[in-house]
Specification:
Blueprint lengths: L7 H23 L5 E13 L9 E9 L5 E5 L2 E8 L5 E9 L2 E3 L4 E9 L14 E15 L2 E2 L3 E11 L2 E3 L6 E2 L17 H17 L1
Antiparallel strand pairs: 1-2, 1-11, 1-12, 2-7, 3-6, 3-8, 4-5, 4-8, 8-9, 8-10
The structure holds 2-acetamido-2-deoxy-beta-D-glucopyranose (NAG) (6 copies).
Keywords: Membrane, Transmembrane, Transmembrane helix
Main location: membrane
Subcellular location: Membrane
Protein backbone atom coordinates (compact mmCIF):
# COMPACT_ATOMS: atom_id res chain seq x y z
CA UNK A 1 0.00 0.00 0.00
CA UNK A 2 1.63 3.28 -1.02
CA UNK A 3 1.36 5.92 1.72
CA UNK A 4 -0.15 9.33 1.05
CA UNK A 5 2.19 11.60 -0.83
CA UNK A 6 2.58 13.97 2.09
CA UNK A 7 6.34 14.23 1.92
CA UNK A 8 8.85 14.59 -0.80
CA UNK A 9 10.61 11.45 0.39
CA UNK A 10 7.65 9.05 -0.02
CA UNK A 11 6.80 10.69 -3.34
CA UNK A 12 10.36 10.04 -4.47
CA UNK A 13 10.46 6.40 -3.41
CA UNK A 14 7.01 5.85 -4.93
CA UNK A 15 8.34 7.18 -8.19
CA UNK A 16 11.41 4.98 -8.01
CA UNK A 17 9.36 1.86 -7.27
CA UNK A 18 6.91 2.61 -10.08
CA UNK A 19 9.73 3.23 -12.54
CA UNK A 20 11.47 0.06 -11.42
CA UNK A 21 8.36 -2.07 -11.82
CA UNK A 22 7.66 -0.54 -15.24
CA UNK A 23 11.22 -1.25 -16.35
CA UNK A 24 10.94 -4.84 -15.07
CA UNK A 25 7.63 -5.30 -16.87
CA UNK A 26 9.01 -3.92 -20.13
CA UNK A 27 12.09 -6.10 -19.81
CA UNK A 28 9.97 -9.21 -19.21
CA UNK A 29 7.78 -8.50 -22.21
CA UNK A 30 10.62 -7.62 -24.60
CA UNK A 31 12.91 -10.45 -23.61
CA UNK A 32 12.53 -13.48 -25.85
CA UNK A 33 13.53 -17.12 -25.61
CA UNK A 34 14.91 -18.77 -28.73
CA UNK A 35 12.85 -21.60 -30.18
CA UNK A 36 14.23 -25.08 -29.60
CA UNK A 37 14.86 -27.32 -32.55
CA UNK A 38 14.87 -31.12 -32.33
CA UNK A 39 15.29 -33.99 -34.73
CA UNK A 40 12.24 -35.90 -33.54
CA UNK A 41 12.38 -38.89 -35.88
CA UNK A 42 14.55 -40.34 -38.59
CA UNK A 43 14.12 -43.53 -40.58
CA UNK A 44 16.73 -44.74 -43.06
CA UNK A 45 15.34 -47.82 -44.87
CA UNK A 46 18.78 -48.71 -46.30
CA UNK A 47 19.99 -49.22 -42.72
CA UNK A 48 17.02 -51.36 -41.64
CA UNK A 49 18.72 -54.75 -41.43
CA UNK A 50 15.47 -56.72 -41.43
CA UNK A 51 14.73 -55.40 -44.93
CA UNK A 52 17.81 -57.20 -46.36
CA UNK A 53 18.21 -54.42 -48.88
CA UNK A 54 20.38 -51.32 -49.00
CA UNK A 55 18.98 -50.06 -52.29
CA UNK A 56 16.50 -47.50 -50.94
CA UNK A 57 18.18 -44.14 -51.44
CA UNK A 58 15.69 -42.02 -49.50
CA UNK A 59 15.18 -41.40 -45.82
CA UNK A 60 12.50 -39.74 -43.74
CA UNK A 61 12.77 -37.30 -40.88
CA UNK A 62 10.60 -35.14 -38.65
CA UNK A 63 11.82 -31.84 -37.34
CA UNK A 64 10.27 -30.53 -34.14
CA UNK A 65 10.28 -26.83 -33.30
CA UNK A 66 9.15 -25.54 -29.93
CA UNK A 67 8.24 -21.94 -29.15
CA UNK A 68 8.84 -21.60 -25.39
CA UNK A 69 7.55 -18.01 -25.20
CA UNK A 70 4.37 -17.49 -23.23
CA UNK A 71 3.10 -14.52 -25.22
CA UNK A 72 5.19 -14.17 -28.37
CA UNK A 73 4.69 -15.73 -31.79
CA UNK A 74 7.57 -16.71 -34.05
CA UNK A 75 7.88 -16.21 -37.80
CA UNK A 76 10.41 -18.70 -39.19
CA UNK A 77 12.29 -18.22 -42.43
CA UNK A 78 12.85 -21.41 -44.41
CA UNK A 79 14.75 -23.91 -42.26
CA UNK A 80 17.71 -25.35 -44.15
CA UNK A 81 18.78 -28.83 -43.06
CA UNK A 82 22.00 -30.66 -43.88
CA UNK A 83 22.48 -34.36 -43.31
CA UNK A 84 25.87 -36.03 -43.20
CA UNK A 85 27.34 -39.44 -42.41
CA UNK A 86 30.38 -39.84 -40.19
CA UNK A 87 33.35 -41.40 -41.99
CA UNK A 88 35.49 -41.42 -38.86
CA UNK A 89 35.47 -39.77 -35.43
CA UNK A 90 35.48 -36.23 -36.75
CA UNK A 91 34.73 -36.10 -40.48
CA UNK A 92 31.47 -36.49 -42.35
CA UNK A 93 30.36 -36.71 -45.95
CA UNK A 94 27.25 -34.93 -47.14
CA UNK A 95 24.22 -37.13 -47.74
CA UNK A 96 21.70 -34.55 -48.76
CA UNK A 97 19.87 -31.38 -47.85
CA UNK A 98 16.27 -30.53 -47.12
CA UNK A 99 14.24 -27.39 -46.59
CA UNK A 100 11.25 -26.77 -44.36
CA UNK A 101 9.25 -23.85 -45.75
CA UNK A 102 8.70 -20.63 -43.81
CA UNK A 103 5.88 -20.66 -41.32
CA UNK A 104 4.37 -18.85 -38.35
CA UNK A 105 4.11 -20.42 -34.91
CA UNK A 106 1.88 -19.18 -32.10
CA UNK A 107 3.04 -18.83 -28.50
CA UNK A 108 3.91 -22.01 -26.60
CA UNK A 109 3.21 -24.10 -29.71
CA UNK A 110 5.09 -27.14 -31.00
CA UNK A 111 5.40 -27.77 -34.73
CA UNK A 112 6.33 -31.11 -36.31
CA UNK A 113 7.58 -30.88 -39.88
CA UNK A 114 8.12 -34.14 -41.74
CA UNK A 115 10.45 -34.33 -44.72
CA UNK A 116 12.24 -36.63 -47.12
CA UNK A 117 15.84 -36.64 -48.29
CA UNK A 118 17.05 -38.27 -51.49
CA UNK A 119 20.63 -39.36 -50.90
CA UNK A 120 22.88 -37.74 -53.44
CA UNK A 121 24.54 -40.05 -55.98
CA UNK A 122 24.96 -43.67 -55.04
CA UNK A 123 23.37 -44.19 -51.69
CA UNK A 124 25.60 -46.85 -50.16
CA UNK A 125 25.81 -46.03 -46.49
CA UNK A 126 28.75 -48.28 -45.72
CA UNK A 127 30.78 -46.11 -43.36
CA UNK A 128 30.98 -47.24 -39.75
CA UNK A 129 32.67 -45.69 -36.72
CA UNK A 130 33.51 -48.29 -34.09
CA UNK A 131 31.01 -50.56 -35.83
CA UNK A 132 28.16 -48.05 -35.61
CA UNK A 133 26.43 -45.68 -38.00
CA UNK A 134 26.43 -42.02 -36.99
CA UNK A 135 24.60 -39.20 -38.73
CA UNK A 136 25.24 -35.50 -38.45
CA UNK A 137 22.28 -33.12 -38.70
CA UNK A 138 22.60 -29.34 -38.92
CA UNK A 139 20.02 -26.62 -39.34
CA UNK A 140 20.14 -22.92 -40.05
CA UNK A 141 17.30 -20.43 -40.18
CA UNK A 142 16.27 -16.95 -39.09
CA UNK A 143 13.35 -15.97 -36.91
CA UNK A 144 11.36 -12.86 -36.05
CA UNK A 145 9.40 -12.64 -32.81
CA UNK A 146 5.92 -11.15 -32.79
CA UNK A 147 5.27 -9.05 -29.70
CA UNK A 148 1.65 -7.84 -29.64
CA UNK A 149 1.38 -6.42 -33.19
CA UNK A 150 5.03 -5.85 -33.93
CA UNK A 151 7.85 -7.99 -35.20
CA UNK A 152 11.38 -7.82 -33.85
CA UNK A 153 14.33 -7.79 -36.22
CA UNK A 154 15.55 -11.11 -37.61
CA UNK A 155 17.71 -13.39 -35.47
CA UNK A 156 19.94 -16.00 -37.08
CA UNK A 157 19.61 -19.45 -35.52
CA UNK A 158 21.64 -22.58 -36.12
CA UNK A 159 22.62 -25.80 -34.42
CA UNK A 160 23.44 -29.42 -34.93
CA UNK A 161 23.75 -32.83 -33.36
CA UNK A 162 25.30 -36.24 -33.93
CA UNK A 163 23.07 -39.27 -33.72
CA UNK A 164 23.49 -42.99 -33.83
CA UNK A 165 21.30 -44.97 -36.23
CA UNK A 166 20.33 -48.42 -34.95
CA UNK A 167 19.71 -51.75 -36.67
CA UNK A 168 16.14 -50.87 -37.61
CA UNK A 169 17.21 -47.73 -39.44
CA UNK A 170 15.93 -45.40 -36.73
CA UNK A 171 17.88 -43.21 -34.38
CA UNK A 172 18.83 -44.83 -31.10
CA UNK A 173 16.70 -43.50 -28.24
CA UNK A 174 13.06 -42.47 -28.34
CA UNK A 175 13.45 -38.84 -27.34
CA UNK A 176 13.97 -36.11 -29.90
CA UNK A 177 17.58 -34.98 -30.22
CA UNK A 178 18.17 -31.29 -29.59
CA UNK A 179 19.98 -29.61 -32.46
CA UNK A 180 22.25 -27.52 -30.26
CA UNK A 181 25.88 -26.61 -30.07
CA UNK A 182 27.44 -30.05 -30.27
CA UNK A 183 30.70 -30.22 -32.26
CA UNK A 184 31.09 -32.54 -35.26
CA UNK A 185 32.86 -35.21 -33.27
CA UNK A 186 32.25 -38.62 -31.78
CA UNK A 187 34.36 -39.26 -28.71
CA UNK A 188 35.54 -42.83 -28.22
CA UNK A 189 32.46 -44.21 -29.92
CA UNK A 190 30.07 -42.49 -27.55
CA UNK A 191 27.89 -39.50 -28.22
CA UNK A 192 28.63 -36.57 -25.99
CA UNK A 193 25.64 -34.74 -24.63
CA UNK A 194 25.89 -31.04 -25.23
CA UNK A 195 23.12 -28.49 -25.10
CA UNK A 196 21.33 -30.01 -22.12
CA UNK A 197 23.06 -27.69 -19.70
CA UNK A 198 22.08 -24.63 -21.68
CA UNK A 199 18.46 -25.77 -21.82
CA UNK A 200 18.52 -26.22 -18.04
CA UNK A 201 19.94 -22.74 -17.60
CA UNK A 202 17.18 -21.20 -19.73
CA UNK A 203 14.64 -23.17 -17.70
CA UNK A 204 16.06 -21.82 -14.43
CA UNK A 205 16.14 -18.26 -15.74
CA UNK A 206 12.53 -18.72 -16.89
CA UNK A 207 11.51 -19.90 -13.41
CA UNK A 208 13.25 -16.96 -11.77
CA UNK A 209 11.50 -14.54 -14.10
CA UNK A 210 8.13 -16.17 -13.33
CA UNK A 211 8.85 -15.93 -9.63
CA UNK A 212 9.27 -12.19 -10.04
CA UNK A 213 5.94 -11.49 -11.70
C1 LIG B 1 15.85 -61.26 -44.67
O1 LIG B 1 16.71 -62.40 -44.74
C2 LIG B 1 16.46 -63.35 -43.72
C3 LIG B 1 17.52 -64.44 -43.82
O2 LIG B 1 18.11 -64.47 -45.10
C4 LIG B 1 15.05 -63.92 -43.89
O3 LIG B 1 14.78 -64.84 -42.84
C5 LIG B 1 14.06 -62.75 -43.81
O4 LIG B 1 12.74 -63.22 -44.04
C6 LIG B 1 14.40 -61.69 -44.84
N1 LIG B 1 13.53 -60.55 -44.63
C7 LIG B 1 12.90 -59.92 -45.61
C8 LIG B 1 12.05 -58.76 -45.22
O5 LIG B 1 13.01 -60.29 -46.78
C1 LIG C 1 12.26 -52.50 -40.90
O1 LIG C 1 11.86 -53.46 -41.81
C2 LIG C 1 10.93 -54.40 -41.28
C3 LIG C 1 10.72 -55.48 -42.33
O2 LIG C 1 10.11 -54.95 -43.47
C4 LIG C 1 9.65 -53.68 -40.91
O3 LIG C 1 8.72 -54.59 -40.35
C5 LIG C 1 9.96 -52.59 -39.90
O4 LIG C 1 8.79 -51.83 -39.64
C6 LIG C 1 11.06 -51.68 -40.44
N1 LIG C 1 11.47 -50.77 -39.40
C7 LIG C 1 10.99 -49.54 -39.31
C8 LIG C 1 11.55 -48.72 -38.21
O5 LIG C 1 10.17 -49.09 -40.12
C1 LIG D 1 12.02 -46.34 -49.53
O1 LIG D 1 11.54 -46.23 -48.19
C2 LIG D 1 10.43 -45.36 -48.07
C3 LIG D 1 10.12 -45.24 -46.60
O2 LIG D 1 9.91 -46.48 -46.00
C4 LIG D 1 9.26 -45.93 -48.86
O3 LIG D 1 8.16 -45.05 -48.75
C5 LIG D 1 9.67 -46.06 -50.32
O4 LIG D 1 8.63 -46.69 -51.05
C6 LIG D 1 10.93 -46.92 -50.44
N1 LIG D 1 11.40 -46.88 -51.81
C7 LIG D 1 11.81 -47.96 -52.43
C8 LIG D 1 12.29 -47.78 -53.84
O5 LIG D 1 11.81 -49.05 -51.89
C1 LIG E 1 40.37 -35.90 -36.13
O1 LIG E 1 40.74 -37.21 -35.72
C2 LIG E 1 42.05 -37.60 -36.08
C3 LIG E 1 42.25 -39.03 -35.64
O2 LIG E 1 41.13 -39.79 -35.98
C4 LIG E 1 43.06 -36.65 -35.44
O3 LIG E 1 44.36 -36.99 -35.87
C5 LIG E 1 42.74 -35.22 -35.83
O4 LIG E 1 43.59 -34.33 -35.15
C6 LIG E 1 41.32 -34.90 -35.49
N1 LIG E 1 41.01 -33.56 -35.97
C7 LIG E 1 40.36 -32.67 -35.22
C8 LIG E 1 40.11 -31.35 -35.86
O5 LIG E 1 39.98 -32.92 -34.09
C1 LIG F 1 24.17 -29.47 -48.93
O1 LIG F 1 24.41 -28.07 -48.78
C2 LIG F 1 25.75 -27.76 -48.52
C3 LIG F 1 25.84 -26.27 -48.34
O2 LIG F 1 24.89 -25.82 -47.46
C4 LIG F 1 26.66 -28.22 -49.65
O3 LIG F 1 28.01 -27.98 -49.34
C5 LIG F 1 26.46 -29.73 -49.86
O4 LIG F 1 27.19 -30.16 -50.99
C6 LIG F 1 24.98 -30.06 -50.06
N1 LIG F 1 24.86 -31.49 -50.12
C7 LIG F 1 24.22 -32.12 -51.08
C8 LIG F 1 24.22 -33.61 -51.02
O5 LIG F 1 23.65 -31.53 -51.98
C1 LIG G 1 27.10 -50.18 -53.42
O1 LIG G 1 26.84 -51.48 -52.90
C2 LIG G 1 26.77 -52.51 -53.90
C3 LIG G 1 26.38 -53.80 -53.21
O2 LIG G 1 27.10 -54.00 -52.04
C4 LIG G 1 28.11 -52.60 -54.62
O3 LIG G 1 28.04 -53.56 -55.65
C5 LIG G 1 28.45 -51.24 -55.20
O4 LIG G 1 29.74 -51.26 -55.78
C6 LIG G 1 28.43 -50.16 -54.14
N1 LIG G 1 28.64 -48.87 -54.74
C7 LIG G 1 29.49 -47.97 -54.22
C8 LIG G 1 29.61 -46.69 -54.94
O5 LIG G 1 30.14 -48.18 -53.19
Amino acid sequence: MPPKHDSCCSCCSGFIITTGLTALFIWLSIRVDEPKCYLDYIYVPALNKTLNSTSNSTFLFTLKLVNPNKDKGIQYDAVQLRFGLFKDLNTTRSLGNATVGRFYQGHEKTAKKPGLVVVNGVGNLTERVNGKVYFRVDFVTAVKYKILLWYTKRDQLWGGANLEIGDLGEKVGKKGVRLGNSPVMIESGALKLYGGYRALLIFLVGCTALGFT
